[in-house]
Amino acid sequence: xxxxxxxxxxxxxxxxxxxxxxxxxxxxxxxxxxxxxxxxxxxxxxxxxxxxxxxxxxxxxxxxxxxxxxxxxxxxxxxxxxxxxxxxxxxxxxxxxxxxxxxxxxxxxxxxxxxxxxxxxxxxxxxxxxxxxxxxxxxxxxxxxxxxxxxxxxxxxxxxxxxxxxxxxxxxxxxxxxxxxxxxxxxxxxxxxxxxxxxxxxxxxxxxxxxxxxxxxxxxxxxxxxxxxxxxxxxxxxxxxxxxx
Amino acid sequence: xxxxxxxxxxxxxxxxxxxxxxxxxxxxxxxxxxxxxxxxxxxxxxxxxxxxxxxxxxxxxxxxxxxxxxxxxxxxxxxxxxxxxxxxxxxxxxxxxxxxxxxxxxxxxxxxxxxxxxxxxxxxxxxxxxxxxxxxxxxxxxxxxxxxxxxxxxxxxxxxxxxxxxxxxxxxxxxxxxxxxxxxxxxxxxxxxxxxxxxxxxxxxxxxxxxxxxxxxxxxxxxxxxxxxxxxxxxxxxxxxxxxxxxxxxxxxxxxxxxxxxxxxxxxxxxxxxxxxxxxxxxxxxxxxxxxxxxxxxxxxxxxxxxxxxxxxxxxxxxxxxxxxxxxxxxxxxxxxxxxxxxxxxxxxxxxxxxxxxxxxxxxxxxxxxxxxxxxxxxxxxxxxxxxxxxxxxxxxxxxxxxxxxx
Lengths: 245, 407
What we know:
The complex is a heterodimer.
Chain A: E1 5-14, E2 21-31, E3 36-40, H1 47-54, E4 62-67, E5 70-71, H2 77-84, E6 87-90, H3 102-108, H4 118-131, H5 147-160, E7 165-169, H6 177-194, E8 197-201, E9 213-218, E10 221-225, H7 234-239
Helix pairs in contact in A: 3-4, 3-5, 4-5, 5-6
Chain B: H1 3-11, H2 20-37, H3 39-70, H4 72-76, E1 81-84, E2 97-98, H5 100-105, E3 111-125, E4 132-140, E5 164-168, H6 178-185, E6 188-192, E7 195-203, E8 214-218, H7 219-225, E9 233-234, E10 236-241, H8 247-257, E11 263-266, H9 267-281, H10 284-312, H11 315-323, H12 328-365, H13 373-398
Parallel strand pairs in B: 4-8, 5-7
Antiparallel strand pairs in B: 1-10, 1-11, 2-9, 3-4, 3-10, 5-8, 6-7
Helix pairs in contact in B: 2-12, 3-9, 3-10, 3-12, 3-13, 10-13, 12-13
Organism (chain A): Muricoccus pecuniae
InterPro entries (chain A): AAA+_ATPase (IPR003593), ABC_heterocyst_DevA (IPR014324), ABC_transporter-like_ATP-bd (IPR003439), ABC_transporter-like_CS (IPR017871), ABC_transpr_LolD-like (IPR015854), MacB-like_ATP-bd (IPR017911), P-loop_NTPase (IPR027417)
GO cellular component, one term (chain A): plasma membrane
């Protein structure tokens, strides 16, 4: 099976001419189906830029970046937008729409799929909110939820469209230890049950334990790679199937 | 459900996006949900659109009332064609034509009757305060039935008495309480120019920008009131054709007969001539167009502010939607959808308020102001365009929502 993320020889620079500053240098990275990879490194090491490139949020300058079977080098804007619909994003802040309930926020991720109906979308949103433990809170506005609950809604929103890849940037930064742990473990369990790979950028040492592999970056290069694990998540996925999703 | 089943969606190719209409519906629904969530902001946006709407309605109303009142007299005449001096700019200040032209018109086969009409402005002394104001005198042969005014038929014989005239009850109130005095006393003396005459009845015509009030007289009494006018000169001739005659053919025939000191016009052409004077030779038409434009600009700025701050205040959310795979087009539809909703929500109460104001202003100014479907349609188009322009301007802010900055 093709890896959800296959990056080779990826180089990226901001600015031009004398101001040109390379932030990624000849980066190699592969993420296997169902694998959870944590990217760590000091700020400025290029890990966030790597995440935005893998998320088709930036145009690739040189090198190869294959995500979910699509080569992003030379991809047009429209192709990148289409690919993003198959990726789940989780941000440092929840970035939920304040005027929509939790359920409506989650359903927004499904409105991009023309094969869904309104009733179907709300029903699926309700089921995944139940899976993140927010059954009672599905019809509340984000303002009426705690920080941890909001981030769980964001996790539900990222996962409801059954993405093949989940990209998360410091998802626990705004949370206390307990809620942070809870959110990350939910993310891991739900992603495994769906066979989705996760690429997660974090500074937070408390959540490193969820990773199958930790990739350290420094100065635009991958400096430590705990060795690519085989994609053996099938068994785990079956185990996590008790969520019934 | 097994692991393979779970993986399948992930391996599916690109999603089929919703169809255009379904996508548009979702975008507009999102816009409505966003607008609805902030009641105070929504209310101020609607008030802004309403304000623009009322302003435009009033300006266009005045403009149309002006043009309409300028042609009230001509519209009230039962005639198929008119003879007029080509030098006449507007009927309230006519140039004369020789009376002989009226008789000459009868030479054309299709003409059934040709009636001279006399127009002049004279002063009328307010019977209560004694102050003088300029009034429009309209003189014609009472038997010819050329002017069809409400109230004229029963007093036709009374108007044949020497020095009698009928007062237009829809004249401006500055002429004095003539209708009330007439109702109390019956015919009473009143002064036109320097001549003592009698009000013998009331007709309804309406004031205009050219004339604050009107008095209707017989041909003979007109000459008594306006002594300096030679009998051989008339201001307008109303021509009625035989039943079944083609007005355009008759017009051509009359033109062939008449010397160049007379223009032959249809009623429509004469009204257009009259309107053109007010539109082009006076600043009034421009003033009202300018007023409408100002209303639209103020409304646009208000709507733009609302839409812009909605986007600026939710840049992270918009960027998140872009990261999730929402296209710029979809988000543009959302912003323009907001604009369209505001247009509609402001237009409906704005139209209602304008209808009420039309009534109030018509009572105060005696101008013919009325809400019409056609004007409402035009105003809706203008308000819609105003909101769309505000939306398009606000769209530029959407570019600042860059999903790459989200991480």
